# Entry
Amino acid sequence: MRTRAALALLLGSLVAAPGGAEAAEGHLADAVNRQVLRVCGTPANLPYSNEKGEGFENKIAQLVSDELKRASVEYTWFPQGTGFVRKTLSEKRCDLVMGTVQADEFTLNTNHYYRTTYALVTKPGSDLAGVTSILDPKLKGKKVGIQAGAPAADYVAKAGLMPNAKSYLFIVDTRYQNPMQDMANDVRSGEIDLGILWGPHAGWYASHGGEKLNVQPMLEEKQPGLPRLEYRITMGVRAGETAWKHEINNVIAKRQGDIDKILLDYGVPIIDEDNKLITEPRQPKGTN
# Structure
Protein backbone atom coordinates (compact mmCIF):
# COMPACT_ATOMS: atom_id res chain seq x y z
CA MET A 1 0.00 0.00 0.00
CA ARG A 2 2.88 2.39 0.78
CA THR A 3 4.34 2.32 -2.71
CA ARG A 4 0.95 2.40 -4.46
CA ALA A 5 -0.11 5.38 -2.37
CA ALA A 6 3.15 7.16 -3.10
CA LEU A 7 2.79 6.57 -6.83
CA ALA A 8 -0.76 7.87 -6.74
CA LEU A 9 0.37 11.04 -5.02
CA LEU A 10 2.91 11.42 -7.80
CA LEU A 11 0.01 11.24 -10.25
CA GLY A 12 -2.01 13.76 -8.27
CA SER A 13 -4.71 11.36 -7.05
CA LEU A 14 -5.32 8.79 -4.34
CA VAL A 15 -5.04 5.01 -4.20
CA ALA A 16 -6.77 2.60 -1.84
CA ALA A 17 -7.86 -1.00 -1.91
CA PRO A 18 -10.53 -1.69 -4.53
CA GLY A 19 -14.14 -2.26 -3.60
CA GLY A 20 -15.37 1.06 -2.25
CA ALA A 21 -16.31 2.52 -5.59
CA GLU A 22 -18.03 -0.64 -6.81
CA ALA A 23 -19.98 -0.97 -3.59
CA ALA A 24 -21.34 2.54 -4.01
CA GLU A 25 -22.18 2.08 -7.69
CA GLY A 26 -25.77 2.72 -8.57
CA HIS A 27 -26.67 4.56 -5.37
CA LEU A 28 -25.73 8.12 -6.27
CA ALA A 29 -27.43 10.49 -8.71
CA ASP A 30 -25.41 11.53 -11.76
CA ALA A 31 -24.48 15.17 -11.04
CA VAL A 32 -22.25 15.73 -14.06
CA ASN A 33 -22.35 19.16 -15.69
CA ARG A 34 -23.48 18.63 -19.29
CA GLN A 35 -22.60 22.11 -20.58
CA VAL A 36 -18.85 22.18 -19.90
CA LEU A 37 -16.21 19.59 -19.03
CA ARG A 38 -15.21 20.22 -15.43
CA VAL A 39 -11.77 18.77 -14.70
CA CYS A 40 -9.90 18.35 -11.42
CA GLY A 41 -6.29 19.39 -12.00
CA THR A 42 -2.99 20.03 -10.25
CA PRO A 43 -1.28 23.37 -10.99
CA ALA A 44 2.38 23.63 -12.06
CA ASN A 45 2.55 19.87 -12.60
CA LEU A 46 4.13 19.38 -16.03
CA PRO A 47 4.14 17.20 -18.02
CA TYR A 48 0.61 16.47 -16.74
CA SER A 49 -1.06 19.84 -16.32
CA ASN A 50 -0.66 23.50 -15.56
CA GLU A 51 -2.81 26.61 -15.54
CA LYS A 52 -1.66 27.53 -19.06
CA GLY A 53 -2.96 24.25 -20.49
CA GLU A 54 0.51 23.06 -21.52
CA GLY A 55 0.40 19.50 -20.13
CA PHE A 56 -0.65 16.31 -21.87
CA GLU A 57 -3.60 15.92 -19.50
CA ASN A 58 -4.73 19.40 -20.54
CA LYS A 59 -4.57 18.33 -24.20
CA ILE A 60 -6.43 15.09 -23.56
CA ALA A 61 -9.08 16.91 -21.52
CA GLN A 62 -9.64 19.24 -24.48
CA LEU A 63 -9.93 16.21 -26.77
CA VAL A 64 -12.58 14.69 -24.45
CA SER A 65 -14.43 18.00 -24.31
CA ASP A 66 -14.45 18.31 -28.10
CA GLU A 67 -15.64 14.74 -28.60
CA LEU A 68 -18.49 15.26 -26.11
CA LYS A 69 -19.28 18.64 -27.71
CA ARG A 70 -18.86 20.58 -24.47
CA ALA A 71 -18.60 24.34 -24.70
CA SER A 72 -15.26 24.44 -22.87
CA VAL A 73 -12.99 22.84 -20.27
CA GLU A 74 -13.19 24.35 -16.78
CA TYR A 75 -10.63 23.47 -14.12
CA THR A 76 -10.73 23.19 -10.37
CA TRP A 77 -7.10 23.47 -9.27
CA PHE A 78 -5.88 21.76 -6.11
CA PRO A 79 -2.32 20.94 -4.96
CA GLN A 80 -1.09 17.41 -5.49
CA GLY A 81 -1.32 15.19 -2.41
CA THR A 82 -3.65 13.75 0.18
CA GLY A 83 -7.13 15.21 -0.07
CA PHE A 84 -7.00 15.94 -3.80
CA VAL A 85 -9.97 13.75 -4.76
CA ARG A 86 -11.91 14.40 -1.58
CA LYS A 87 -11.68 18.18 -1.96
CA THR A 88 -12.44 18.27 -5.68
CA LEU A 89 -14.27 15.35 -7.27
CA SER A 90 -16.19 14.16 -4.21
CA GLU A 91 -17.33 17.71 -3.40
CA LYS A 92 -18.70 17.98 -6.97
CA ARG A 93 -16.48 20.90 -7.83
CA CYS A 94 -15.47 18.99 -10.98
CA ASP A 95 -16.48 15.80 -12.79
CA LEU A 96 -13.31 14.16 -14.07
CA VAL A 97 -9.79 13.36 -12.80
CA MET A 98 -7.46 12.89 -15.75
CA GLY A 99 -4.98 10.44 -14.19
CA THR A 100 -5.76 7.75 -11.61
CA VAL A 101 -4.36 4.31 -10.84
CA GLN A 102 -7.06 2.61 -8.80
CA ALA A 103 -10.39 3.59 -7.27
CA ASP A 104 -10.79 4.70 -3.67
CA GLU A 105 -14.08 5.20 -1.89
CA PHE A 106 -14.67 8.46 -3.76
CA THR A 107 -13.87 7.40 -7.32
CA LEU A 108 -14.82 4.99 -10.08
CA ASN A 109 -12.23 4.16 -12.74
CA THR A 110 -12.75 4.40 -16.47
CA ASN A 111 -10.92 2.02 -18.79
CA HIS A 112 -7.22 2.77 -18.90
CA TYR A 113 -6.02 5.06 -21.70
CA TYR A 114 -2.34 4.28 -21.39
CA ARG A 115 0.04 1.94 -19.63
CA THR A 116 3.52 3.03 -18.68
CA THR A 117 6.46 2.14 -16.48
CA TYR A 118 9.55 3.56 -14.85
CA ALA A 119 12.41 4.46 -17.18
CA LEU A 120 16.18 4.80 -17.11
CA VAL A 121 17.66 8.13 -18.20
CA THR A 122 21.22 8.33 -19.54
CA LYS A 123 23.45 10.66 -21.54
CA PRO A 124 23.79 10.11 -25.30
CA GLY A 125 26.70 7.76 -25.99
CA SER A 126 26.64 6.26 -22.50
CA ASP A 127 27.55 2.57 -22.26
CA LEU A 128 24.37 2.22 -20.15
CA ALA A 129 22.03 3.45 -22.91
CA GLY A 130 20.77 -0.05 -23.76
CA VAL A 131 20.17 -1.17 -20.19
CA THR A 132 16.52 -2.04 -19.49
CA SER A 133 16.82 -3.49 -15.98
CA ILE A 134 18.15 -2.13 -12.71
CA LEU A 135 19.42 -5.65 -12.04
CA ASP A 136 21.73 -5.52 -15.09
CA PRO A 137 25.35 -6.26 -14.00
CA LYS A 138 26.51 -3.24 -16.04
CA LEU A 139 25.19 -1.01 -13.27
CA LYS A 140 27.53 -2.41 -10.61
CA GLY A 141 29.64 0.42 -9.24
CA LYS A 142 27.64 3.08 -11.08
CA LYS A 143 26.05 6.05 -9.37
CA VAL A 144 22.31 6.07 -9.92
CA GLY A 145 19.67 8.63 -9.02
CA ILE A 146 16.44 7.48 -7.39
CA GLN A 147 13.55 9.20 -5.65
CA ALA A 148 13.32 7.94 -2.06
CA GLY A 149 10.10 6.01 -1.51
CA ALA A 150 9.44 5.32 -5.21
CA PRO A 151 8.58 1.71 -6.13
CA ALA A 152 11.75 1.50 -8.24
CA ALA A 153 13.86 2.20 -5.13
CA ASP A 154 13.19 -1.33 -3.91
CA TYR A 155 14.82 -2.67 -7.09
CA VAL A 156 17.82 -0.38 -6.56
CA ALA A 157 18.23 -1.86 -3.08
CA LYS A 158 17.90 -5.44 -4.37
CA ALA A 159 20.56 -4.74 -6.99
CA GLY A 160 22.94 -3.55 -4.27
CA LEU A 161 23.22 -0.07 -5.76
CA MET A 162 22.13 1.97 -2.73
CA PRO A 163 25.65 2.63 -1.37
CA ASN A 164 26.45 4.71 -4.48
CA ALA A 165 22.94 6.03 -5.12
CA LYS A 166 21.94 9.68 -4.90
CA SER A 167 18.54 10.18 -3.30
CA TYR A 168 15.98 12.75 -4.44
CA LEU A 169 12.69 13.80 -2.89
CA PHE A 170 9.60 11.98 -4.15
CA ILE A 171 6.46 13.89 -3.12
CA VAL A 172 6.91 17.64 -3.52
CA ASP A 173 4.98 20.74 -4.49
CA THR A 174 6.45 21.32 -7.94
CA ARG A 175 5.67 25.02 -7.70
CA TYR A 176 8.65 25.23 -5.32
CA GLN A 177 10.84 22.14 -5.85
CA ASN A 178 11.55 19.90 -8.81
CA PRO A 179 13.66 16.82 -7.99
CA MET A 180 12.86 15.28 -11.39
CA GLN A 181 14.49 18.20 -13.20
CA ASP A 182 17.37 18.09 -10.71
CA MET A 183 17.94 14.41 -11.48
CA ALA A 184 17.95 14.99 -15.24
CA ASN A 185 20.38 17.86 -14.82
CA ASP A 186 22.66 15.65 -12.70
CA VAL A 187 22.71 13.08 -15.52
CA ARG A 188 23.70 15.85 -17.94
CA SER A 189 26.49 17.10 -15.67
CA GLY A 190 27.84 13.63 -14.88
CA GLU A 191 26.98 13.89 -11.20
CA ILE A 192 25.15 10.58 -11.64
CA ASP A 193 25.56 7.91 -14.32
CA LEU A 194 21.88 7.09 -14.66
CA GLY A 195 18.56 8.45 -13.41
CA ILE A 196 15.44 6.43 -12.63
CA LEU A 197 12.17 8.27 -13.14
CA TRP A 198 8.47 7.50 -13.60
CA GLY A 199 7.90 7.19 -17.36
CA PRO A 200 6.05 10.47 -18.08
CA HIS A 201 8.62 12.38 -16.00
CA ALA A 202 11.52 10.62 -17.72
CA GLY A 203 10.23 11.53 -21.17
CA TRP A 204 9.56 15.14 -20.27
CA TYR A 205 12.69 16.04 -18.30
CA ALA A 206 14.99 14.20 -20.70
CA SER A 207 13.85 16.71 -23.35
CA HIS A 208 13.67 19.86 -21.21
CA GLY A 209 16.35 21.76 -19.36
CA GLY A 210 19.38 21.11 -21.55
CA GLU A 211 20.98 18.37 -23.64
CA LYS A 212 18.46 15.76 -24.80
CA LEU A 213 18.89 12.52 -22.85
CA ASN A 214 18.15 8.90 -23.70
CA VAL A 215 15.06 7.31 -22.16
CA GLN A 216 14.86 3.52 -21.86
CA PRO A 217 11.65 2.06 -20.40
CA MET A 218 12.31 -0.48 -17.66
CA LEU A 219 10.99 -3.79 -18.95
CA GLU A 220 11.68 -5.39 -15.59
CA GLU A 221 10.29 -8.81 -14.78
CA LYS A 222 8.28 -8.76 -11.56
CA GLN A 223 10.51 -9.85 -8.69
CA PRO A 224 9.10 -11.77 -5.70
CA GLY A 225 8.46 -9.45 -2.78
CA LEU A 226 9.01 -6.29 -4.85
CA PRO A 227 6.41 -3.86 -6.18
CA ARG A 228 5.34 -3.67 -9.78
CA LEU A 229 6.83 -0.92 -11.91
CA GLU A 230 4.22 -0.63 -14.67
CA TYR A 231 0.72 0.75 -14.20
CA ARG A 232 -2.47 1.24 -16.20
CA ILE A 233 -3.57 4.87 -16.02
CA THR A 234 -7.29 5.60 -16.10
CA MET A 235 -9.51 8.64 -15.64
CA GLY A 236 -11.61 8.90 -12.50
CA VAL A 237 -15.26 9.82 -11.98
CA ARG A 238 -17.42 9.91 -8.88
CA ALA A 239 -18.52 6.59 -7.39
CA GLY A 240 -21.97 5.72 -8.68
CA GLU A 241 -21.81 7.74 -11.90
CA THR A 242 -21.65 4.73 -14.20
CA ALA A 243 -23.37 6.42 -17.16
CA TRP A 244 -20.68 9.12 -17.13
CA LYS A 245 -17.96 6.48 -16.85
CA HIS A 246 -19.29 4.73 -19.96
CA GLU A 247 -19.37 8.04 -21.86
CA ILE A 248 -15.70 8.53 -21.09
CA ASN A 249 -14.91 4.90 -21.97
CA ASN A 250 -16.49 5.46 -25.38
CA VAL A 251 -14.36 8.56 -25.95
CA ILE A 252 -11.19 6.66 -24.97
CA ALA A 253 -12.04 3.80 -27.33
CA LYS A 254 -12.92 6.10 -30.23
CA ARG A 255 -10.01 8.49 -29.81
CA GLN A 256 -7.28 6.10 -28.59
CA GLY A 257 -5.04 6.92 -31.54
CA ASP A 258 -5.32 10.67 -30.89
CA ILE A 259 -4.62 10.11 -27.19
CA ASP A 260 -1.56 8.01 -28.08
CA LYS A 261 -0.27 10.76 -30.35
CA ILE A 262 -0.49 13.32 -27.55
CA LEU A 263 1.32 11.02 -25.15
CA LEU A 264 4.03 10.15 -27.67
CA ASP A 265 4.51 13.84 -28.50
CA TYR A 266 5.24 14.40 -24.80
CA GLY A 267 7.75 11.54 -24.71
CA VAL A 268 5.61 9.29 -22.51
CA PRO A 269 6.84 5.68 -22.88
CA ILE A 270 3.68 3.67 -23.64
CA ILE A 271 3.77 -0.11 -23.27
CA ASP A 272 1.20 -2.76 -24.19
CA GLU A 273 0.00 -5.65 -22.03
CA ASP A 274 3.03 -7.71 -23.13
CA ASN A 275 5.41 -4.92 -22.05
CA LYS A 276 6.22 -4.10 -25.66
CA LEU A 277 6.89 -0.45 -26.45
CA ILE A 278 4.19 1.32 -28.47
CA THR A 279 5.79 3.76 -30.90
CA GLU A 280 2.86 4.60 -33.19
CA PRO A 281 -0.73 5.64 -32.35
CA ARG A 282 -3.06 2.65 -32.11
CA GLN A 283 -6.26 2.14 -34.04
CA PRO A 284 -9.52 2.87 -32.18
CA LYS A 285 -11.30 0.00 -30.47
CA GLY A 286 -15.03 -0.72 -30.33
CA THR A 287 -17.07 1.35 -27.88
CA ASN A 288 -18.48 -0.09 -24.66
Notes: The first strand starts at residue 37 and ends at 41. The chain has two domains: 2-114+229-272, 117-217. The two ends are 31 Å apart (CA to CA).
